[in-house]
Fold each of these.
Amino acid sequence: MASIDVCYSPELLHLYDLEGKAVVAVDILRATSTMVTAFAHGATDIFPVMELEECRAYAGQGCLTAAERNGIKAEDFDLGNSPFSYMNGVVQGRSVAITTTNGTRAIRLSEAAEEVVIGSFLNLQSVADHLRDLQLDVIVVCAGWKGKFNLEDTLFAGALADCLQQDFTFENDATLASLHLYQAAKADMFAFLKQSSHVRRLENLNIHEDIKYCLQHNLYDVLPVWRHDRLVDLAGVKKL
Amino acid sequence: MASIDVCYSPELLHLYDLEGKAVVAVDILRATSTMVTAFAHGATDIFPVMELEECRAYAGQGCLTAAERNGIKAEDFDLGNSPFSYMNGVVQGRSVAITTTNGTRAIRLSEAAEEVVIGSFLNLQSVADHLRDLQLDVIVVCAGWKGKFNLEDTLFAGALADCLQQDFTFENDATLASLHLYQAAKADMFAFLKQSSHVRRLENLNIHEDIKYCLQHNLYDVLPVWRHDRLVDLAGVKKL
């Protein structure tokens, strides 16, 4: 039986052997939630890049460009990191290049894996189904906040372990802790996260509605995966 | 009001500014529990060192030498890492040099802090009282297991946060998660930890009794702190 492990920060990734594994990259607030939303609203492919300048250069290839630093949209980019800004036809039929403080870093540092899947609560079931099909050992790579542990990515890891506990083994401490925390939080994740200074800092940036949106389960049947140099959606869109 | 934060691994320590802070170094299974036990049984000072050869050299200065790697006592040392081997007068009046897989590394990497305190469940109350007196910002440095997150050190961080929640602020995600996990586990920490493959691996080394021992709260009024080049006990021994 394949196994699930959780890496709480990109800063710990060197301790994990990604070869032959499936990585689920997660940055709930908000990079991976936003990418899933972009695909659900018609984006054709997404280029996650680490640096602002690299991202800007994609404009020359006809891409929309998106950038966030410290929770705020960076200047001179088409889009920021709020999922709502990717709705209403804005990204329909378009390629998007995106760079964020934490999420795009987690994705790009995971490229050595056999498969890299983009995870969020919004597409939790699609991710779980895909992992069941693959039957590879799974490592959930939490983006964290500037290298440190964060709760919302951990809750996602716990939710995924909860979905997969019949079909995968997980006896390592990080996965067990994630599952316990998800079980404590799932009745009201928003209230659970409200204690967090990190989440309150994001709330102060007027993204209260973003947070509520990003905690919804299974809104989209979208499955972004890394292929060659970009993310593409392996699934269709079930509902908008 | 001073604050508490938790660093889940020595591999994340570079993200924390230790200057002017109090670090509580913790390796519940078993380095810091064992050091507290050694002081409770009469050790005069402890030299925590990172390398086996460095540890061996302390024998020339009249120290007992203790070494553990991968859960097992290293060859040609006086002592291993089981707290029981430090009882019955063995360390009475002696200096001990010790190196372990995770714990001594966490201690030595924390030297930049204003104060470094050795924490374990065995001396939880003494540590909490000392931190209340100091009124410095606190960082709990979990030794983890070979750089990865572990549950038992996290439960200690949660127990300490629980003790100090009237007198310190903690809104960061790692401390909140630790407190939630401690609250879920505290009714039966041994049962909680039994799910962990890391703890089961230790159990297979016949340290079942060590684990139960190390989870006992407030057995000793011992307060090991770093001074210059060694650990000394700031408190007396309340009970043996």
Amino acid sequence: MKQSWNAYANEHIVIEPGSSGSLSGKSFAVKDVFDIAGYTPGAGNPDWLRTHGPSARHAAVIERLLGSGARLEGTTITDEIMYSINGENAHYGTPVNPKAPGRIPGGSSSGSAVVVSAGLADFAIGTDTGGSVRVPAAYCGIYGMRPTHGVVDVSGLIPLAPSFDTVGWMARDAQTLLDVGRVLLDEKVSNGKREGFSRLIFAQDLWELPDEHSKNVLLRFFPMLQSLAGVHEEVVLASEGLREWMNAFRVIQGLEIWREHGGWVTREQPSFGPGIAERFAWASTLKPEENNEAFARRDRVRVKMEELLGGDAVLVVPTVPAIAPLLQLSGAEVEKRRVQTLEMSCVAGLAGLPQVTVPVIGELGCPIGLSFIAGRNQDLRLLEWVANVVDDRMKQMG
Amino acid sequence: MKQSWNAYANEHIVIEPGSSGSLSGKSFAVKDVFDIAGYTPGAGNPDWLRTHGPSARHAAVIERLLGSGARLEGTTITDEIMYSINGENAHYGTPVNPKAPGRIPGGSSSGSAVVVSAGLADFAIGTDTGGSVRVPAAYCGIYGMRPTHGVVDVSGLIPLAPSFDTVGWMARDAQTLLDVGRVLLDEKVSNGKREGFSRLIFAQDLWELPDEHSKNVLLRFFPMLQSLAGVHEEVVLASEGLREWMNAFRVIQGLEIWREHGGWVTREQPSFGPGIAERFAWASTLKPEENNEAFARRDRVRVKMEELLGGDAVLVVPTVPAIAPLLQLSGAEVEKRRVQTLEMSCVAGLAGLPQVTVPVIGELGCPIGLSFIAGRNQDLRLLEWVANVVDDRMKQMG
């Protein structure tokens, strides 16, 4: 798989802020799947670019960021049609992971994670359907946020699987992640002036997924985290196995992807890189009526997560199973890791809940991430808790 | 409230079919909220029309219908921004209910129901978020279908509350309702060659809602319906009360409506008729974080309905509480009926399930409806069962 030394899709797209605000002086980059007036988002695929026209106006989140003083500096490479969490792009090259060269950056918001990790932009906008912000943020050693489904405006975004699609963001520090959240989150999602969470939940089955080294590194933080919450609970999330949760996620995602893009794929017969072509081919075979169990499972997952978290608990989970895989791994090995990773990242996806990933140094000095999942609409409270409390404590521990 | 003797928004929009097919020779009308190339959908409000431009292409369902041989003959009046089930429009007038003159037609797909009921079109397309196809179909004495959420393409439709929005359709006979379903439903939603349903479920709490006359008329069909299914069960759907289900529906709908259209309302300060203005004002006050319980309740309703219906049961419910209210009723009285009706219609809405309403003659010779709700993706099976079995038996009973 070829590498790209430039993580930008187009670094010449520069837009000055519309007015000054809380993000004045900050630069940001945007995944190449959002509308920018006068440009055509390419979605990481040359045939997409060729068969679509320029956007009439900016996506809603870009308007908000420009209106808050941030300067747009470029669009970034994405996995093709966002349908991967690996960060490999056969057409434009795989962006180089600045914190783990020789390893994949994670995707699909690969370029967004890379330009932030490399210090080329203060923050970046991506999309997270099944982990596409959280996974590259973890592999590239930065902070990443997937919000509650529905609270950040997706207008002007190429859809992937709308019932899971969210606009997420990444930054090199927790304060910037919070500052961007204050701009992007629906102004009605307030934190209600409550601080922290009173219950910390440890999901045993999720902690069986990371490799030994990653688990040991991440578990060092546990006594400190427990001291921040009054109550500490251990649970098994999926008595039926997390593989079943992931399968429900993949099936619903596949059905929605084919509904959104099957017509285009069938009509244009686009050229896809390895993995992507197979994934679309698989999605095309899914029949809604044969997959009712996936929807029923998602509903049960949502009820279970609501009962577990309510408005006052946070679930602590690893973001990825291990450091980023090597670039020269075979397609089969990368696919195996993708499935392991989806077993972790599908939880917030299925439940529609907010998740923040915080960078941690793992094996060989390469990044991994520690994640926090909170209840519905607890987005700002979660970002504030991470920025004001958790981040400092984790840094004190080194 | 003024009446309109013309249920069309624009009867001069006529589009010939693109090719012949299963709907050749049939005419249809379209609610004025769908894209038709070169025209601007008005959504029942002059300020909407003034502040929006013409559509570049047809909505997906219109393309499908034209491609199957049907002829488009006009767009139809809708309640303003689809945010009502009454069928009253202060700007364009309330379309006359052909089967119950002097009474409201129901809405928001009011014009679509009226032109079909009056014999001006063979079928019509509407939208159903909280009852906007089912309710006017029942009040106007025709057949109506709300499909499983997500199985009929909503591209080119002005959204109301996307997690509930569906494209529905209406016809004067069950066979046409089925024929249109075969065209509009995702080709992958097959009926698997299964016929009928093995369990018939009677929800006691839903049957406490209609008035005495309507209940007696509808319950006459019960012994016949029981004879069609092997098993007959009685349940209470909502131990917490259907009012709580309806409140969850209204809150989530309100949050989504304000997310979709709050910006436009705030910016343009559109002129709204009675009821609509108050509803938007209420929606503007809703805060996501204060309404997490509504989302949790919806998830629990979905799990409950899936457990109840699975793939092999059908729930028999009244479509509306009584015959259509008189036009001269006060706003408060119409609002009271709207709430009663939503308690019935919110069930399929919350659960995302398909519902067919069959016309029945009620008090004073005015129409009411008997409805059937099936499990996820059982749409074609439900339409076939109604067209091939239920409808004949009901007609035999007169």
Amino acid sequence: MKQPHGESVLSRATRILEAFTQDAPALAVSEIARRTGLHVATASRLVTELVAHGFLSRDDDRKVRIGVRLWELATRASPALSLRDAAMPFMEGVHDVVGHHVQLGVLDGDDVLFLERLSAPGAVVNYTRIAGRLPLHASSSGLVFLAHGSAELRERILVGPCTAYTSRTPVSPSRLRALLAEIRQQGYAYCPGYVHEDALGIAAPVRGDDGSVAAALAVIVPNDEHAHVVVPVVRTAALGISRALAVRGSTGHV
Amino acid sequence: MKQPHGESVLSRATRILEAFTQDAPALAVSEIARRTGLHVATASRLVTELVAHGFLSRDDDRKVRIGVRLWELATRASPALSLRDAAMPFMEGVHDVVGHHVQLGVLDGDDVLFLERLSAPGAVVNYTRIAGRLPLHASSSGLVFLAHGSAELRERILVGPCTAYTSRTPVSPSRLRALLAEIRQQGYAYCPGYVHEDALGIAAPVRGDDGSVAAALAVIVPNDEHAHVVVPVVRTAALGISRALAVRGSTGHV
């Protein structure tokens, strides 16, 4: 599997796929080489092979993008899709009633990875993106995972450094410990202005059939006195998704 | 890039990813070897490397699944996501009003590939799946692409063979030609019982800012006399998505 230069083809191919982001969805081969640190010739050869397999596609202007075939292979059998499928009817209901943003996240490493987001036109500011990530200490979804996660995860995150996005972001271990205890006790995370001053996140745990927290359901609404009424909506929907997962017998091993 | 046995690592890795389907999302390594025709030792080595890169993940029971990291890489910069994002508010509106199924498909090779599907509990039967495919001649979305696609695509599909899913499925070149002319003339495809006797598909073209058909928006409803009222809803939403794409300046090069 190893190449003469010591790095496997798959490892290089992964670096190439990682070069594409939501802000940079189309790249010239020279830009791919720059971002990955690969020689242009090597990048060019690998891009050609990735295009042949449909992992990448080439535009009319020779720019390269993620291929729809890669999306198809990654999605059709993904545990993320089955979890999202179970959650979607509940998310649509919440979105009809609350508006703004409704989102579903899973724990991946030390981040929340967002599987789905429903947004209304004119909704409050929200940094969440589908297939995007947020850190655990600052996002309502992340705090749900921290509150219910392993002691090892909690200690790793709490030692920091934890980025302060606003003056409200909890960053000190003592404040985070108190917050996590509160989230465990009350059953949801309530986060006014933690990621952006104008936005407020409310998240509740979605449990798999083994009782573990499989996902977090969250709404992002304006940071004002009306947000409190959303809490029971989010909690009810998260419990509904948990029951739907139990019926399917799939906890979504994401 | 070539291995001693003549097939590249990426080609073998692709075969492994292709072994996973919605019906078989979790596979033992021996099953992967069987499905791909790779030696068990080769499959095992490649699976280990794919797991290390997050393309695959291993369950507690040693079964292998598509990894959430692969989904993330394939999704976050995918043109499929930006097209889906533009369409989603319109699709939610249609789904609120019509119920059943609302879906968004793109042309990929000689199939429709479905990027998104919203479904209501108790909706009519529908073979569409997210990241699933349907043939062009039988599905309302596919017929929209055939009607507006290249002459080369049309001739390739019309020579057949075209599978008859029901007695209503159009399969003869003469019937298909008449149907495609009608779709071009009236601006939508109306397909009672083509894929399943009980279901009726209605699809309209979503155009990119260069005027080409970038996607097809479709609803699947019960095959009865009430379906006609849905036509203007689908057409209006498809035009709305086309305008939203023009504003974004992204035709979704999918």
